[in-house]
Amino acid sequence: MNVLEGLQTIRLRLVENGAAPETLTLVDAIMQRAALPAAAPASAQSLLQLTRMLARTPAASANITVYNDLLRLEEDLQSAAQDYHERAEAEAAKPVPKTKKHYKQIREREERKHKAS
Questions:
Q1: Model-wide pTM > 0.70
Q2: How many domains, the chain?
Q3: What's the rounded Cα separation, in Å, for the pair 33 and 80?
Q4: CB 11 within 8 A of CB 25
């Protein structure tokens, strides 16, 4: 994931959560740095990783409001990721329907058994 796109998404979510202006200012400052040509190849694994990185910045450490906004977003992202993984596991646990080829192979084996007998 591109860092700049991830930061834009994080900013939108913070606005939706009613984050403090200081938090948005922090994200805007990081977005300006991420928009520089030297930072273009930067990538992140997930929004959760980016949020954790933001929470570790000196600005977040110095301001409890900023830290709490980022922590709330981190919790939201974690619960969304957990829900996704639970759905994926449930989907994977569903039995896979047998194909026509499977039943045809069984029928052919049975026919060979009867012919051999």
A1: yes
A2: 1
A3: 28
A4: no
